[in-house]
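input
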Amino acid sequence: MTESSIDRVKQSPAEARQEWLGMLESFVEQIQKQQQYSQQMIQELINTYMQLLNTPGSYLSDQAEHQQQTLQQTVQQWMEQAQQQQQTFQEQAQQQQQSFQQMTQEVMSTYSQLFNIPLSYAQQGLRDAQFPIEGYDELTVEEVSAHLGALSSQDMREVRDYEERNKNRETILEQLDRRIRGDS
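output
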């Protein structure tokens, strides 16, 4: 890897996004400048032709007037096309910017999820290691009932609170309430 590619990898996603947006904005500015130059050249061409037609010694026949009108129509069409191209380029740049923003958000979401996966596994493992009944969430009512006899009052209260917050199975809650009252 080159030093510049290593630096890009080290960039935060926000910095990378800003760099891309800057490049897109620069691209749009260049397109707009090119269109302005084209419009200026066309206008100068019109002006030069008009001066040529209006100079003394030139004749204004029907043919010359027709040529002048044709030229003006052609220039007008060029101007309209240049404006349409400018609008199209701006729309495309906007679409690219929106696509890039969406892609960046998706990458950031995936990147965030990637780092949360080990954390969620660790949290699940820690909860399982500390919870009085191993694999509790996967157990049926009968399987949970079979484990209740081996629990202390404190463990039964913890299991009851967890059951109420999660699956809220009435049968288990009633069994736990009876056992907790019986131990008190």
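quick obs: Residues 136-183 form one domain.
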